[in-house]
What we know:
By secondary structure, the chain is α+β, with helices and mostly antiparallel strands. It is built from four helices and five strands. Strand 2 and strand 3 form a beta hairpin. Helix 3 packs antiparallel against helix 4 (115-128). The protein is elongated.
Amino acid sequence: MTSPLIPILFLDPGVFVQPLAAILGMYGIVKVTGPLLGRARQRGYDGASAAEAVRLVISTPTGLVPDRDLATELIRALHPRQWRGFDAWRTGWPSTELRVVRRRDELAWEVVANRQIADQVGHALRTLYPGTE
C-alpha cells in the first residue's frame, strides 16, 4: 500500500507556484488600484472645485458678545460630513480654508471654499449668528 503523500511530494513545483503567484498578483493589483483610483477622483474634484472657488468674509454685527462655543460650532459646521461631487467621476472631500484677515483695521474671518460648501457655510452662519453678513 502506497501513501497518498508520496506522489504529491514528487510533483513539479511549478504546479503550486504559478497559481499562487497569479493569486498574489491579483491581490496586489486590487490593493494598489483602489487607492490610485481614489486619488485620481479626488484630484478631478479638486480641479473642478478650484474653478468655482468662493471667498466669504464674515463680518459680525456690532455688539455681538464673543462666544467660544458658538465659534466652535461654526468651525464644526465647515466640515462637509460627506463626499461631494460634480459628476460620477469627480467626487471627493471638499477643501475649506478658514483664515483670519484684517479688513478696515478690524480682524475678520474669511472662508475660502467651493460653491457647494459656501451654501452650507451661509446656512450655518445664519443659524449660529443671526444678523451676520
